[in-house]
């Protein structure tokens, strides 16, 4: 029996391909309470996206399972909205239309046209994007695209919001602004969030708990760190906060001492991995 609003129970994941059998995840168990903000952190390639994709229903676990609000996950669904690092807006639709398309799909039969329009505008207002309703994705910045992606995800009223490195491709200032917006939105809406990050500060700043994964193959959860900091959190005040710095230190110790990455980086992943390592080391 699981106790979480979102529960992963004994999740194993093995990929079989030309290069043989690759056990990526082993015995992942996690109970997430309703309204909880969880970050998933671990070295590149350990299996974080695989966990998120299993929760999203994009991948089926080799064994074990996922439950969201007492229902087993067996396919993608609007109750689990995903925001990826590389914004996935439809390039031929405007900002408004990119949110509208989700709202039409979910609420096309249950809300009037006026209510749907208001809901699209409400979600775009939440991420401060009402000034650019008629612009195409090619006409707005990377940070703005992420804002629209977040508005689209929120407009679906998901039970669980899945964020796969949502701020990873943004410059530091834009990232900080967007983090603050997501923190504000989460405090208003009480979303249940599972977020992948490589940024230790981001994990501590935003999360109620930080889930640290061991290195692969056969990665599992190595440590779960509660972040007992009151909300709202102020990033400037936190820089001097003992609890904040203790949490940060715990994660750094896990990543760079207990789970120090020793193997060479695979050629195909090298640029992505180096960029992420750089972010993490600067943390
Ligand atoms: N569809 C797939 N088929 C085969 N192998 C896969 C598939 N998806 C992921 N893998 C493998 O699973 C492992 C974990 O990948 P995953 O992308 O989940 O890691 P990650 O921790 O999210 O990495 P990163 O931080 O670099 O994004 C890797 O070895 C990857 O090659």
Description:
This protein is of the alpha/beta class. The chain folds into two domains: 6-79 and 159-281, Rossmann fold (3-Layer(aba) Sandwich); 86-157, no CATH class. It has helices at 48-56, 95-107, 113-126, 142-155, 172-189, 200-206, 235-238, 242-258, 270-282; strands at 6-17, 20-32, 37-41, 63-68, 71-72, 80-84, 160-164, 192-196, 209-213, 221-226. Strands 6-7-8-3-9-10 form a six-stranded mixed β-sheet, sandwiched between helices. A hairpin with a 2-residue loop joins strand 4 and strand 5. The model is unreliable at 264-283 (pLDDT under 50). The structure holds adenosine-5'-triphosphate. Adenosine-5'-triphosphate (ATP) binds at residues 15, 17, 22, 24, 42, 44-50, 216, 272-273. Adenosine-5'-triphosphate binds at residues 15, 17, 22, 24, 42, 44-50, 216, 272-273.
- Tell me, what is the CATH class of the largest domain? Alpha Beta
- Low-confidence runs: 264-283
- Major sheet: arrangement of strands: 6-7-8-3-9-10
Count all strands and give the number: 10
Structural class: alpha/beta
Give the CA-CA distance, first to last residue: 38 Å
Assign the CATH topology of the largest domain: Rossmann fold
Q: Sheet with the most strands?
A: 6 strands, mixed
How many structural domains does the protein architecture include? 2
> Which CATH-level-2 architecture of the largest domain?
3-Layer(aba) Sandwich
Number of helices: 9
Reading the helices and strands in chain order gives EEEHEEEHHHEHEHEEHHH
| Morphology | globular
Query: At the fourth CATH level, what is the homologous superfamily of the largest domain?
Result: P-loop containing nucleotide triphosphate hydrolases
């Amino acid at each position: 029996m699981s106790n979480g609003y979102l529960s992963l129970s004994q999740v194993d994941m093995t990929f079989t391909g030309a290069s043989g059998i690759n056990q990526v995840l082993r015995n992942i168990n996690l109970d997430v309470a309703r309204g909880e903000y969880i970050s998933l952190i671990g070295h590149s390639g350990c299996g974080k996206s695989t966990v998120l994709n299993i929760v999203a229903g994009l991948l089926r676990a080799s064994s074990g399972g996922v439950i969201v609000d007492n229902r087993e996950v067996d396919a993608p669904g609007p109750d689990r909205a995903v925001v990826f690092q590389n914004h996935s807006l439809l390039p031929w639709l405007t900002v408004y239309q990119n949110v509208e398309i989700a709202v039409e799909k979910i609420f096309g039969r249950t809300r009037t046209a006026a209510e749907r329009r208001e809901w699209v505008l409400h979600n775009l207002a939440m991420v401060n994007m009402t000034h650019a309703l008629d612009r195409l994705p090619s006409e707005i910045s990377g940070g703005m695209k992420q804002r629209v992606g977040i508005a689209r995800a929120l407009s679906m009223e998901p039970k669980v919001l899945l964020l796969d490195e949502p701020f990873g491709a943004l410059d530091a200032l834009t990232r900080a602004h967007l983090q603050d917006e997501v923190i504000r939105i989460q405090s208003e809406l009480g979303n249940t969030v599972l977020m992948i990050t490589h940024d230790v500060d981001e994990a501590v700043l935003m999360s109620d708990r930080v889930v640290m994964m061991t290195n692969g193959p056969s990665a599992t959860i190595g440590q779960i760190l509660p972040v007992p900091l009151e909300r709202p959190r102020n990033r400037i005040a936190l820089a001097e906060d003992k609890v904040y710095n203790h949490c940060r230190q715990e994660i750094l110790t896990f990543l760079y001492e207990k789970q120090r990455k020793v193997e060479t980086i695979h050629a195909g992943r090298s640029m992505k991995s180096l960029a992420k390592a750089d972010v993490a080391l600067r943390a």
